[in-house]
Each structure stands twice: as C-alpha cells, then as structure tokens.
Amino acid sequence: MKTLLITLLLVSCSTSSARHLPLDTVNYVDLSKYLGKWYEIARYEQKFQKDCTAVTANYSLKENGEIEVINSCRKFTPTGELKTAKARAWITDDETNAKLKVQFFLRSIRIPLFAGDYWILELDDDYQYAIIGDPSRKYLWFLSRTEKIDSDLYEYLIKRAEEMSFDTSKLIKTIH
Questions:
Q1: For 127, phi and psi rounded to 5 degrees?
Q2: What pLDDT does residue 112 have?
Q3: Can you give the residue range of the structural domain that contains 26?
Q4: Which residues form the Lipocalin/cytosolic fatty-acid binding domain (predicted)?
C-alpha cells in the first residue's frame, strides 16, 4: 500500500510539473512599438470569447503608466453584433516588459487577484506578430497587425507554440 501511495504521488508530481514547465518570454518589449491595434489570428476558446469572430485588441498607454485594453469582437459572423470589453493592464516585469497582468473585472481599482497573466512569448522584430500565453498554458493567442497572415507564418507560430508545450490542437482560427 505504501509503495502504491508513493507511486501515485510521484506520477501526480511529474504530470503536474510537465504541465507547468518553465515558460520563457521574449527578452524585451518596446511598449511604444507594441501599443496599437492587433488582430487575433487564433486562440484557445474561452468562455469570455464564446462565439466571437473578427477579434481585435487595442492597447494604449495611460498617463499613470498602465495600459488601457479595449478588446472587441463580432458575435457569430464578421458582420454580427459588436461586443467590446475594457481592461487595465500593467507591467509586472520592468526588465523585459514582457509580463503583464490584465484585469477586466472591477477595473477601476487594481486588484491583482482579479487579473490574468499576459505574457509575450514570441514577438516579431518589427512587431508584426506575437504569441501571447500564460504559464499555466490555459490561454494562448496568436496576434498580428493584419487580419490575415500567410500559411507559412501560421505554421511557424504553431511550431513555436508546440515548442513551448502548448497543445495546438485546441487552437481555433479567428474569422475576420
């Protein structure tokens, strides 16, 4: 019985650690280049994005140094009802600017408990595409400055996400 318990404990620890392998971000993000409009190319489906198409995110710098986030999408089709969600974001790693917290709920007061991780994991030198995720690997987005990207770039993003231990079979492409 003791051997069985130890085995189960070891298996659960190894499974848990495999899910939470260290996740590296990009070395540095120039916020002035990152700000602006991004188009979602693909994502893991989330309750808060259910039935969304034509998804965009717009980031702007606020006077207090935080980032205002305005996400928008169309319901069901690219011409469907427009939905928007506002959030506040702040840098949690001043050395790289690649780790942020984003808070949609009760956004008038910074409450880290209600904020999610937003890590910039891959970023084009010209700030034309990015991979965004979190260390738990429950969230993943491919973003681009354009509504569509070519298939070679999409395959590259898939490959990079897989190298970071994301399950790319869960990705859904965004229709614009």
A1: 60, 45
A2: 87
A3: 21-173
A4: 29-174
pLDDT above 70 (res 29): yes
Amino acid at 99: K
For the chain, the domain total comes to 1
C-alpha–C-alpha distance, residues 115 and 133, integer Å = 14
Residues 69-73 have a mean pLDDT of 97
Q: Looking at the DSSP assignment, which residues form a beta bridge with residue 43?
A: 141, 172
The bridge status of strand 36-44 relative to strand 171-173 is: antiparallel
DSSP 41-102: EEEE--GGGTTEEEEEEEEEE-TTS-EEEEEEEEESSTTS-EEEEEEEEEES-TTTS-EEEE
CA–CA separation, 134 and 98 (whole Å): 11
Q: Are 64 and 77 in contact (CB under 8 A)?
A: no
Whether 14 is covered by a domain: the verdict is no
Determine, yes or no, domain membership for 122.
yes
| Whole-number pLDDT of residue 19 | 57
Question: What's the CATH number where 119 sits?
Answer: 2.40.128.20
- Say if residue 20's pLDDT is above 70: no
